[in-house]
Amino acid sequence: MQKMNITSSPHIANSDNTSGIMLDVIFALLPATICGILFFGFNALLVVAVTVASAVVSEYIWCTAIKKETSLRDLSAIVTGLLLGLNLPPTLPLWMAALGSAIAIIIVKQMFGGLGHNFANPAITARITLMVSFPTAMTTFVEPVTGAVSSATPLAALKETATTVLPTDITRLFFGNYAGCIGETSALLLLAGGIYLVLRKVITPEIPLAFFASAAGLSWILGDDPIRTLLSGGLMIGAIFMATDYVTSPPTRWGKVIFGVGCGLITVVIRHFGNLPEGVSFAILLMNILTPHITRFTTPKPFGTEAKTNEK
């Protein structure tokens, strides 16, 4: 006779699972990934392939070493490797790319208990580690198609001048035809991926919209060009695919808004006043650290409960 498990209500059937969600994220990232490879060539393909492979191998080795059931089936390692690869320049040495994925999986994810227990986004933390450790390699970019080495990224130009971008510049920024990291260049395809995730109910729009609005607003106040701020660098991929991570962002609606606003403001402050033009990774990491506090302050009090009193 089959044993029946009895649980309390509500009894809601839901087909969502981790692997299904991760597969949706992979599908949403594929257009930007393919675009990056077409723009930057075979080197870009190698970097992305190495980060994904290193993430998968690192997770398998760690789980095997500590005799833990492998978690490769949930596809989270592939998503982490893919996100990291898309946030790297196509010229990055492959051993650095592999090291970044190993750091993301072993140190940031598995050492804190695996998926669902990490305090920060693994791909974001790995990117920052590589940026601090290998600043020259992480800031060497090439022009699309031609492969000519160039440091004149849109963010570098924004740092040097606050002039308004021309319509031709907006077109290049929107479609991604400029020097930068592999997957951050095409705003159009990243937005399309974000819309797909919203329609699939994988993410909600609060964090990306709050991120965009606060970044554009503060840029305008500081005299920078809001359009270039939104379309340049890693803001699009960060706001849509990394700031919305379930584990490291607040679950409440107002918490998501506060989180997104914080990310946008910190990003612009770092870009405008800091030595490095990019600030998305640092902004998301800082807000990841504040997530437990934001969640606590924005979680509604259950109806019918009473405040605790000190009894003598």
Topology as a string of helices (H) and strands (E): HHHHHHEEHHHHHHHH
- Strand order, largest beta sheet: 1-2
| E-strand count | 2
Helix content: 55-70%
Terminus-to-terminus distance: 55 Å
- Global morphology: globular
Q: Which regions contain 5 or more consecutive residues with pLDDT less than 50?
A: 6-15
Number of helices: 14
Oligomer: single chain
User: Main beta sheet: strand number and arrangement?
Assistant: 2 strands, antiparallel
Helices and strands: which structural class? mainly alpha
Task: Determine Rg (CA atoms, Å).
Answer: 21 Å
Q: What is the residue-averaged pLDDT?
A: 85
What amount of the residues lies in strands?
under 5%
Topology (SSEs and partners):
Blueprint: H1 18-40, H2 42-65, H3 76-86, H4 94-109, H5 122-133, H6 135-138, E1 141-142, E2 149-150, H7 154-160, H8 167-175, H9 187-199, H10 206-222, H11 226-231, H12 235-242, H13 253-273, H14 280-298
Antiparallel strand pairs: 1-2
Helix pairs in contact: 1-2, 1-3, 1-9, 2-3, 2-4, 3-4, 3-5, 4-5, 5-14, 9-12, 10-12, 10-13, 13-14
